[in-house]
Amino acid sequence: MGLRAILRKKTEYFSIDVDFFCPEGKTLVLIGPSGAGKTTIIRMLAGLDRPDDGRITFRGKVIFDADRDICLPPQKRDLGYVFQDFTLFPHLTIHGNASFAAKDKNDVDHLINYFGLAHLRDRKPHQVSGGERQRCAICQALARRPDLLLLDEPFSALDVVTRRGLRAELKKIKEERGLSVVFVTHDIHEALFIANSILPIVDGKVDRDWLEHITSPSSPRDAQPRAVREPKLALVY
Amino acid sequence: MDFLPLYLSAKLAVITTSVLILISAPLAYALVYAKWPGKFLFEALVNLPIALPPTVTGLYLLYLLGPQGYVGAIWKEVFGGTLLFTFAGIVIATAVYNLPFAVQPIKATFEKIDPRLRENAYVLGISPVATFFRVMIPNCINGIAAAAILVFLHSLGAFGVVLMVGGSISGETRVASIAIYEAVETMNFSEAWILSLAFLPVSYFLLLLVNRLTRR
User: Fold this and answer.
1) B86, B173 in Cβ contact below 8 A?
2) Model ipTM value
3) Residue B102, Cα to own-chain centre: how many angstroms?
4) Which of A33, A125, B176, B210 gets the highest tally of CB atoms within 10 A of its CB?
5) Which residues of A touch B138 (CB under 8 A)?
6) A83 — contact with chain B (CB < 8 Å)?
7) E strand or H helix at A87, and its extent?
8) pTM of the model
């Protein structure tokens, strides 16, 4: 069970060719430099881009299979997706956005309280901060009660303090709900904090050397430690 | 002094605008987002009335809406009358003539919307049709309203196609623009002036409204 993906797609600059597995209830982080193909991979998982070849299954259900010409539209994949930038609906309030596709309206109130948005529920997205907008985007995705949550660099436009807070909130609610998560980032600290397993992507391929390079003792900054300290952290190749 | 032409012009503009907005919003959406073969050929066809002189469009419509034309024949079969020289005929003619003036601004408004809003609705499980009504229309409402006003103004002053298809039948097809033309022809300048002056404040006010709606 879990998410299994074999994806191949030709892009303008390189070909994406990856094969990975995210166990049920775990967090897989796709990490790599900008322009490595991470967003395209997560968009293919969501059904927003179509792979040229491959197969995606989640909990044994086939959501894409090139050989059998199966490609479920995003609406039928039952997942949550949080975009890199703030993509809330500008005509709706924070509460309207959070409840846009909610299965249970009581759950929306719980999520709004959990993410500290209760006092902002009647405001429009342009009237709140970037961090609050992204909290609302996560509420919106979670209110659909997905089993799989995809996040595409959700905190990249936020300041360090807000990022830390949001990471912790996300990790806690992920544990509470037993969600499987695929998280895209180019920030090694973020990856090490949130990941159960890490998939380093460079030019559309899994690249072990890249991760070893940035986590090596000679690497500038203190990026290396957790992979070394914590043997439980699996590197997925 | 006959004010009936002003009433007919307003009625023509209201009906044409309502019909065109209902047609143009989904059409513009399909032109922006749907992928289908020959889309560019269809779009050029929709825009053709911009490029053709109104009298030329009127001549084509005269044939199409006439008893020998496809539309006229179907109309006769269904409703048992003719479209030429009727109010229904000038509504169809004005709608065809104004179609690009409705579709193009609405299309431009849809193109300005961040495509991720649509994608976000899709990943939230919302169907394309529901996305159109729940996301696209509310976020494009100002652009659609501006397009409606421009079409209304355009229909209010329709002349060439109306004259070709409807002629000048009092109480039926003699709209204000034709009445003004005829008043000048018959040297009845006072009627021409009064009818013309009625257009000025309406047009000016609606243009101000368009500017306000399209201002960011």
Assistant:
1) yes
2) 0.87
3) 6
4) B176
5) 89, 91
6) yes
7) none
8) 0.83
